[in-house]
Amino acid sequence: MIRVLLAALLLASVFLTSPAFAADMSVFVRNHRSDGVAVELFSRDNNKVWPGDDKVFFIRPKARKSVPISCEPGEHICWGAWVNGNDQVSAGVGPDNDQPCDTCCFICTEHSTETVDLAE
Questions:
Q1: Mean pLDDT of 5-12
Q2: Which domain holds residue 81?
Q3: Contact of 69 with 50, CB cutoff 8 Å
Q4: pLDDT, tens only, 29-47
Q5: How many domains does the chain have?
Q6: Burial 3-40 (b: 16+ CB within 10 A, else e)
Q7: Where residue 42 sits, what CATH number does that domain have?
């Protein structure tokens, strides 16, 4: 009887402490600018940043790039972009995630793609 109770407690603890389900999605960035741009994604629900570790997604001039991310379903994510080497020329929430923006956020959804267009 004790073994059965211990097994049940162990099984319950596995389910109760399992990490939350992460969704895999893509962000497709189209850089219409004649300058290369740096892009970061910022969670509005926690301190997560993609790609993280003081790195950025670099998009060459006039190029397109799909970047995969893993996020929590329903998580609000905003993008910030700036001219590589000149963060005074920025779009979205900017390089420091501190600019107001109504059209640069999306919700994390499993197996989906969000498109970001960076105009000249």
A1: 42
A2: 20-118
A3: yes
A4: 999 999 999 999 999 999 9
A5: 1
A6: eeeeeeeeeeeeeeeeeeeebebebebebebebebbbb
A7: 2.60.40
